[in-house]
Write a structure and sequence with these properties.
The protein has about 100 residues and is of the alpha+beta class. The chain has one domain: 2-Layer Sandwich (Alpha-Beta Plaits), CATH 3.30.70.100. It has helices at about 20-30, 65-75, 75-90; strands spanning about 1-10, 15, 15-20, 40-45, 60-65, 90-100.
Length: about 100
Amino acid sequence: MVRHVVMWSLADEAAGGVKQQNAAIIKEGLEALVGKIEGLIGLEVGINALELAGNYDIVLIADFQDEAALERYQVHPEHVKVADFIKKVRLERVAVDYLM
């Protein structure tokens, strides 16, 4: 199993919305992918609740059957739509993928 963890720092305003609105759109879009991509076991999306220095604004934790499933996710049209939106509103992105 592969765990895919991504965190984003979002712009205060972008794509016609403020940070909290955009975070909610990202959360909804990512959560809608469950059941649509073969090998995506499950995912969790969290929006930062504490305004502490250095905190990112949103986190994704997703589990995949294997590396091939993660690769299918990356290019799946529904994921690409969400990723395109994220690119419009993010300032920074960090990620890690590890085997479980």
